Amino acid sequence: xxxxxxxxxxxxxxxxxxxxxxxxxxxxxxxxxxxxxxxxxxxxxxxxxxxxxxxxxxxxxxxxxxxxxxxxxxxxxxxxxxxxxxxxxxxxxxxxxxxxxxxxxxxxxxxxxxxxxxxxxxxxxxxxxxxxxxxxxxxxxxxxxxxxxxxxxxxxxxxxxxxxxxxxxxxxxxxxxxxxxxxxxxxxxxxxxxxxxxxxxxxxxxxxxxxxxxxxxxxxxxxxxxxxxxxxxxxxxxxxxxxxxxxxxxxxxxxxxxxxxxxxxxxxxxxxxxxxxxxxxxxxxxxxxxxxxxxxxxxxxxxxxxxxxxxxxxxxxxxxxxxxxxxxxxxxxxxxxxxxxxxxxxxxxxxxxxxxxxxxxxxxxxxxxxxxxxxxxxxxxxxxxxxxxxxxxxxxxxxxxxxxxxxxxxxxxxxxxxxxxxxxxxxxxxxxxxxxxxxxxxxxxxx
Length: 447
Hints:
- Helices cover about 35% and strands about 15% of the residues.
- It has 18 helices and 15 strands.
């Protein structure tokens, strides 16, 4: 049966801000305390969705999370009315309050790991929300992520949902940002390549020394078991610890895969020659596997991290060629831009590039690929998806009007002391659940 890959892009939440909460993420740290523009951020994301839809691609919408997270503030000892909780938290620990306001769920590449039905023994599409326990502000996400996924993919005949892994570092799981799938077509059985940063139990494997390894081998193996992956559909390789210490906090900052193409930096993986040989050996597709290694001499790790070249989306167009969806930062970086021009003129499936302005996301450490969760679906599975979360021109117009109505055009650190921001945020999301037919997925709607 024919299948397509649907990109479910995360809508940027109304409390989008730069708090510098993500240690190991160079862009996040370098823009800490800058003024943010939530309205511009969500509209930039919607423009990218619209552009992908107009290319003839299936596009989906992933709702943001409710922020601030009052429940966690209550668990941490703040009491009283909503207003009093906000006021007390801002006075006692403003950094904690900003973490509870974080809109980091916008990066849906970290929302979950998804295995298509072609790869699984039971023939279902499997979802496991990431526990994201390496960072406090992201560890607040998995329960709501699971609820959103169940509201989007709400047919048990086709979709199987799993609880996120245990909430501690031994099973640190950062979702699809450390997961690649190689295949001849989206309908074919593929090779799911899980990339881990370190092992919790095997001390013989190296670890980064400066920044944390967010994905563990044990987490990746657990997800593969939960998803009932066919034995020949799974492979585990280690990310290069040296580049993690240079700000490559996820595999998708140093490598991107699509179809029968893997685009990676020559320093992406530990013992790279051996790792790539393993991938070639494990790949069972009939098409030629294209592994494109980007030389350090042409693109340094520093340039890769600052431009987010590898956090570009790589998508297949109707004619079979591939398009690199890159942030404008790639265009502005002379070394990266020159390499991209060489790439699209070379003998490989990547023949086109488009640059997008995603500055609001980029400054917080997330490029085009961070903003989307890839889900390969056959025709029956696609028809079983909640139709209200599938992108259309009418849905675009509705969401633009919704964002212009509810979102502020500036947020500063002092704005988080304003309880009205909570009211505005919750009102916006309450309306959004109706637009996307999600039901009562947020805690404030259930209380």
